[in-house]
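Posting here for the record, re: flavin mononucleotide.
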Amino acid sequence: MRINRLLSTLMVACLALSAMAGVHVLNNDDVMNNNTKTLVAYFSATGTTMEAATRLAQVAGADLHEIVPEKPYTPADLNWQDKSSRSSVEMADKSSRPAIANRVENMAQYDTVFVGFPIWWYIAPTIINTFLEQYDLAGKTVIPFFTSGGSGAGETLKYLRPSAPDANWVAPKNFNYMNDAEIKSWLESL
Ligand SMILES: Cc1cc2nc3c(=O)[nH]c(=O)nc-3n(C[C@H](O)[C@H](O)[C@H](O)COP(=O)(O)O)c2cc1C
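Prediction output follows.
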């Protein structure tokens, strides 16, 4: 009881002092979320982007969400040497929107959304456009990141931006060979 009273008195004193100094007092939400909530959403056909996304979510202290295609991509679907494979057909038609089986619960709670994917034909797979168009991302910071066989982002942003035109877009980040320390310093630079 006495300890409680002492703590309350201390808290009131701290609040008064910080109010005088014009300092914002941290509340529980600030401490837990740095006053924002962050989501790492990713699509991965063969696991490489999944690994990158998992590490990013750990380092960023973010929630992790896998974008699951309604129809999983088979190895034959992913054959880029076959012009009639599913991925070749989808990527040749920028308006294709492969269906997604799941949704982010309560997207409204996130201020920052990292969106990860493999580079397909020098840009993001069109299932990422499907994902972006499922939500109201206006005013949120959207940060693409990718893995690839060596390509950079190319025109990725040009094809993603129209699917969330009112988001605050950050340049896509290449996650090939990123270690945790590099992820951390990149996050700090944002
Ligand atoms: C259909 C298809 C197209 C691809 N196009 C490219 C490309 O243009 N440039 C590149 O560097 N890698 C390309 N890749 C390789 C993937 O980007 C790379 O293997 C990626 O890390 C796979 O990620 P995932 O395991 O998360 O699916 C392509 C792969 C597939 C299946």
